[in-house]
Amino acid sequence: GRLEEIRPELALMTPSAWVLIRNPLEVEEYLRGGSRRGRIDPLATGSVSVTLWIDEHGSVEWAEISESSGRRDLDEFALALFNEVAVFRPAREEGVRVSRSVSFALNFPW
Description:
Strand content: 35-45%
Distance between the termini: 10 Å
Strand order of the largest sheet: 1-8-3-4
């Protein structure tokens, strides 16, 4: 998909250690609606990498741009996605909820 994991070490983890998005439909709608709501230029192109810290409850404690698209509107749109829209299932290790750092790449146009 267009929302890609870019941390290769996550591939070595068991599936329960992965951080999963709980509300993929809302995330998809937010991404598709960005240009309709005037938040981003519909012709904008670029890739934004965002690194997150997700706590043991699945909440984003912080998000930052790890690789900018070079466009402020795309970067801010990507940060808002993770700070305001996406809801995560917490990662688990041996059945225990754990905090996790993870990076995502978003490619525009969506």
